[in-house]
Design goal:
By secondary structure, the protein is α/β, with parallel strands linked by helices. The chain contains 19 helices and 25 strands.
Length: about 550
């Protein structure tokens, strides 16, 4: 049988060793790498239907995988006005005013990417935006996607006129008189306004998701660990695959909320393994806390505002019981845990689950933004992967600790930020990702941020340069380690015969390109299962 894909005149970089293989050609058939050798023998494997590409010494490596992203919900969330580039309130007001002028009468204004640092040291309130949203129903997602800012008209339409009690760590922020300020913290509060806001059609969400995934493939991604199955996400993936327009291999972890009962947990267990050829439900996502920027993280000691003192789960013991039940069923968990208390509780829960039930289930913790030394040392013995998003540190915090995140934590805790290198050297499997749409998805930008710890525009000095990863570690964080976290290290993350033919082709060696130039390294081709999903003209 002829090969489906033949790559010639290539430099084959194995992420496992950081060395080039002694071969110049690769062939793939039936989704797997079927041949590694020289060009002459590879040409003999081509047939009339084969895709044959002369790479002219370009670098082929195992396909890059984003360890934490939200393709469908992110596609919908980013349909509004993009505020991610606004560094101060004047820029925010200008962008919102332009969007408001384009609205039909009575239409809603949606926005995303609002950075609380734009408000300086002032509280995040709708009043701070001035008159720009007067009379307009507006809901603006803050950059962390754990909070939103609603206009006065939007609150009125949603019937939100004061504080409420929630069965999870959510809050309608109110002033001293009990009037909502517009700031909504965590899902339960945000959903009150989202419930009355117009939603895009299924066709619009599917089209936007296809557009986003195609752009991700062009940026070098061949796979991703999707950390939600919200809304119609699974149906969207199924539809795109049926149309042969799904360009990434996706591993999906639906949410388990604090209010989930035993029947809800059983349904999550039942969902495991469902999916298609390129997408599959594998794992469950949970939240142990919120975010430091919002004061909803769970810290051992409250932040400087007296906030971030509680878990997202009203009863953390229930979280532990759920993790134990999932572990017993062989289901891996991915838990959002940002604060030191949250991370500690997740590790305690995994340890308890492992003690009560044997089984090689690979659990992971997402984000891990500030933790002490003793916590860093616990990951490797428990086999818990550390899923990190270095660009969160690069883009939203500052080395001089003048940003909102650092001010809330204080110098000591801000000084132990995003400890990628310490976790790696302690033996933890560090998985890198973007958490898109929280931060940009291009994997080379994620890898660059892990290496230089600076914003993409390089305008600020590095935050925690001692926590920078090496070039090889950054590459492994998006190849070898995501494969390990998924229990697929024999299938993915390396260039081996029999392994998946998920491939990323770069113009040069990513291990030799300077940290500050890596994000601009051209991506020439990507392939998933031997099928080309992106190819630059002329290649």
């Amino acid at each position: 049988m002829p090969a489906d894909l033949v790559l010639l005149s290539a430099r084959l970089l194995d992420p496992g060793t950081g060395e080039f293989l002694p071969h110049t050609a690769l062939a793939a058939r039936d989704g797997r790498i079927s041949f590694l050798g020289d060009d002459r023998d590879a040409r003999a494997l081509a047939g009339p239907g084969s895709t044959v590409v002369d790479l002219r010494r370009a670098v082929v490596t195992a396909g890059l995988t984003d360890g934490h992203l939200h393709p469908v919900s992110g596609a919908e969330r980013t349909m509004g006005v993009d505020l991610s580039g606004c560094r101060d309130l004047d820029a925010v007001r200008t962008a919102l005013a332009a969007a408001a002028r384009a609205l039909r009468p009575g239409a809603w204004l949606r926005g995303w990417g609002l950075d609380p640092n734009a408000f300086g040291t002032a509280p995040v309130t709708s009043a701070a935006l001035g008159e720009v949203l007067h009379g307009i129903p507006a809901l603006i997602d803050l950059f962390d996607a754990h909070s939103a800012l609603a206009s006065e008209r939007a609150l009125e339409l949603a019937g939100v006129d004061g504080p409420r009690h929630f069965d999870q760590g959510s809050e309608i922020v109110c002033d001293a008189q009990g009037r909502p300020t517009g700031l909504l913290l965590e899902d339960a509060a945000c959903e009150l306004v989202e419930a009355v806001a117009p939603r895009p059609t299924e066709a619009e969400v599917r089209a936007r998701t296809a557009e986003v995934l195609s752009a991700m493939a062009a940026a070098g991604l061949t796979g991703g660990h999707a950390m939600d199955a919200n809304g119609d996400s699974l149906a969207v993936y199924a539809a795109l695959e049926a149309e042969d327009t799904l360009p990434l291999r996706l591993r999906i972890a639906p949410w388990c909320r604090p209010e989930a009962d035993d029947a809800g947990v059983a349904e999550l267990i039942r969902l495991q393994g469902t999916g298609g050829a390129l997408w599959r439900v594998a794992g469950v996502k949970l939240f142990m806390d919120g975010t430091i920027d919002n004061g909803t993280a769970w810290l051992e000691t409250p932040d400087c505002h007296g906030e971030s003192a509680h878990a997202h789960w009203p009863d953390p013991r229930r979280y532990t019981d759920v993790v134990t039940a999932l572990h017993r069923a062989g289901v891996p968990t991915a838990t959002h845990a940002i604060g030191d208390a949250a991370v500690r509780h997740v590790l305690d829960s995994v340890e308890k689950a492992q003690t009560e039930s044997a089984g090689a289930v690979r659990h992971r913790i997402e984000h891990i933004e500030t933790v002490p030394d003793d916590t860093v040392q616990r990951f490797a013995p428990l086999g818990v992967a550390a899923s990190m998003q270095p660009t969160h540190c690069c883009e939203f915090t500052r080395a001089d600790h003048t940003d909102n995140w650092s001010r809330r934590l204080g110098a000591e805790r801000a000084g132990r930020a995003f400890r990628c290198r310490d976790l790696w050297e302690a033996g933890a499997r560090v998985v890198l990702g973007s958490d898109w749409p929280i931060a940009p998805y291009p994997p080379l930008q994620v890898m660059a941020g892990a290496r230089h710890r600076r914003p993409a525009d390089l305008s600020l000095p590095p935050h925690g340069p001692d926590q920078a990863l090496t070039a090889l570690q950054a590459l492994q964080g998006m190849t070898v380690n995501p494969a390990w976290a998924a229990g697929e290290e024999t299938l993915a993350g390396r260039l081996t015969v029999g392994g998946r033919a998920d491939l990323t082709v770069l113009a040069d060696d990513p291990l030799k390109v300077a940290d500050t130039d890596l994000a601009q390294l051209p991506v020439l081709l990507t392939a998933v299962g031997g099928r080309v999903t992106h190819r630059v003209t002329g290649v």
